Amino acid sequence: MNWDHYVRPGIRAMAGYTPGEQPQTGSVLKLNTNENPYPPSAKALEAMRRVLDEPGAERLRRYPEPFGDRFRDTAARVLGVKPGNILIGNGSDDILTILTRTLVPEGGRVQSLEPSYLLYGTLASLQGAQMDEVPFGPGWSLPEPWPNSGANLVFLPNPNSPSGTVVDLQSIRRVLPQMKAPLVLDEAYVDFAPATGLDLVREGLPVIVTRSLSKGYALAGLRFGYAVADEALVRELEKVKDSYNCDALSLAAAEAALGDGEWLAETRAKVIASREHLERGLAHLGFSVTPSQANFVWCRHPHHVAKTLFDGLKARNIFIRLMRYPGHADGIRITVGTPEGTQRVLDTLADLMAKKV
Ligand SMILES: Cc1ncc(COP(=O)(O)O)c(C=O)c1O
């Protein structure tokens, strides 16, 4: 059977997004997709157990809350917004898809900072839209004046991946009117950063903040994310999302996780301490390190080939990410692990570099 005749030409022409490698064995030190090295909040695990233990597994037998009202109440309280400002998603990727489908017409244009999260380009292609990549300004700043291309939507990950850098809110406020399009502030890594752009939403600016429970909350396997946006926009986004895009277990866990501020503060402090250790260790090995506000570090070495280091680590069961972007030297991105994991990757790199592999 030849499906070429049936599949949309735009889909056939696409390469598709390549997710990071997900080895399903415990013996690997997995520092390639920015997961949290610590177990999630015990309260989140307990909330899921309560769902499973209900008589007749009632909450699994029935459809889940379509709009996640209980989660929205908790999120609104924690974030200081209204429940109507919150859109629930099956991971923040789901939220990014819903935003693109709602705000970008077929044949439209999307702008994203470059280099950044590659999924934005895939979402634009799926929508039959053009992706305009905008290089960062000096020191990973927003370029000014903004190169307005008539885009329907702009994506800015803050902190950015792979650089781990943040753009300050004053420059966003300054550049936003020049964009002439809504701005998605992708805050997947904000739990490790000093500031959030939620104030921009509260001030009624055309900004949508997207959040993930995969990184700061150690729940990547659960698939839960959310957006904070103007209530009128959330009502439109809800028309586009799948009716039941979040399941009963993830809703219960997400609500408990967001309510457990103590767990977040402790875990965040541990990850930031390991991040500083990793940055110092890499600099000591001669890497050029971009200071990170996220839970990963991006670095390049003047004398060692990134692909060789990547392969050498992989051969020793340590998975990191090889990052190749046009106009930038090949680099590696290493997720911040536990203190032991961080030391192991540093020691192994030192070993590999001493052997000149
Ligand atoms: C910048 C950025 N945004 C969003 C995501 C997606 O996260 P989630 O697991 O919530 O879909 C990622 C995942 O790596 C990311 O790097």
**Shape verdict:** globular
Query: How many extended strands?
Result: 13
SSE string: HEHHHEHEHEEHEHEEHHHEEHEEEH
Beta-strand fraction estimate: 15-25%
CATH topology of the largest domain: Aspartate Aminotransferase, domain 2
State the helical fraction. Answer: 25-40%
Q: Average pLDDT across residues?
A: 96
Question: CATH superfamily assignment of the largest domain?
Answer: Type I PLP-dependent aspartate aminotransferase-like (Major domain)
Named once each, the bound ligands are:
pyridoxal-5'-phosphate
What descriptive keywords fit this protein?
357 residues, alpha/beta, Aspartate Aminotransferase, domain 1, Aspartate Aminotransferase, domain 2, 2 domains, 7-stranded mixed beta sheet, 4-stranded antiparallel beta sheet, binds pyridoxal-5'-phosphate
Structure description:
The chain is an alpha/beta fold and 357 residues long. It folds into two domains: 19-39 and 262-354, Aspartate Aminotransferase, domain 1 (Alpha-Beta Complex), CATH 3.90.1150; 42-259, 3-Layer(aba) Sandwich (Aspartate Aminotransferase, domain 2), CATH 3.40.640. The chain is 39% helix and 15% strand. The protein has 13 helices and 13 strands. The chain has helices spanning 9-13, 42-53, 58-61, 69-79, 92-103, 119-126, 169-179, 198-202, 231-240, 248-259, 261-284, 306-315, 339-354; strands at 29-30, 86-89, 109-114, 130-135, 153-157, 183-186, 207-212, 225-228, 288-289, 296-300, 318-319, 321-323, 331-335. Helix 11 packs parallel to helix 13. The termini are far apart. Bound molecules: pyridoxal-5'-phosphate. The site of pyridoxal-5'-phosphate has 13 residues, from helix 5.
